[in-house]
Amino acid sequence: MNLANRITLARIFLVPIIMFFLLVNVKTPHIRIEQFTITYNQIIAALIFIVAASTDSLDGYIARKRKLVTNLGKLLDPLADKLLVSAVLVSLVEMGKLGAWVAIVIISREFAVTGLRQIALLEGRVMAASKWGKWKTAVQITAIIALLLNNFPFEFVHFRFDLFASWVAAIITMYSGFDYFMKNKDVINWNEQKQ
């Protein structure tokens, strides 16, 4: 249990805390600026989400720099990412801030690519993250933060950035999943040939 794996575990443990602030009805005051309103709960959840999302790069950097890459880390890191994003997306759907279809597209892609990675891992291959996968992560995090913050500051200029970012996240997520499967289709074909 090295430093990188502890950071990854911390990201997993932050998931229920974020969900608590989003879904449990705790009476906290609202912040109101003109027509814009947001609860302290949402601000706290957004800040915790930003901290948790930023640890994704940190644990990988520490593991590579200090040569702390372990099988446990290879298992936990993608699991932590999927749990964080999936839990917040489901929470946003429950809050009525995100269409269920967007959450389903994103979560389905994550499960599909994780399955493909597991097949590759069984064959002794490691699927590196593609540039589309990195873009997908960045856009998903941006969209989630915009949704958590009630479209702040774009609400003041009457631009639905949160909605726009959600659509872009869904499209890039679908394309990156397609890209992974096209570039690694030999993994599935090779597995079928063995049978």
TrEMBL record:
Record EC number: 2.7.8.5
PROSITE patterns hit by this protein: CDP_ALCOHOL_P_TRANSF
Residue stretches spanning the membrane: 6-26, 38-63, 83-107, 164-182
The protein's annotated pathway: Lipid metabolism; Phospholipid metabolism; phosphatidylglycerol biosynthesis; phosphatidylglycerol from CDP-diacylglycerol: step 1/2
Molecular function GO labels: CDP-diacylglycerol-glycerol-3-phosphate 3-phosphatidyltransferase activity
Keywords: Membrane, Transferase, Transmembrane, Transmembrane helix
InterPro entries: CDP-alcohol_PTase-I (IPR050324), CDP-OH_P_trans (IPR000462), CDP_ALCOHOL_P_TRANSF_CS (IPR048254), Phosphatidylglycerol_P_synth (IPR004570)
Class of enzymatic activity (EC top level): transferase
A Pfam entry, by short name: CDP-OH_P_transf
Catalytic activity line of the entry: a CDP-1,2-diacyl-sn-glycerol + sn-glycerol 3-phosphate = a 1,2-diacyl-sn-glycero-3-phospho-(1'-sn-glycero-3'-phosphate) + CMP + H(+)
The protein's role, per its UniProt record: This protein catalyzes the committed step to the synthesis of the acidic phospholipids.
Family: Belongs to the CDP-alcohol phosphatidyltransferase class-I family.
Stated name of the protein: CDP-diacylglycerol--glycerol-3-phosphate 3-phosphatidyltransferase
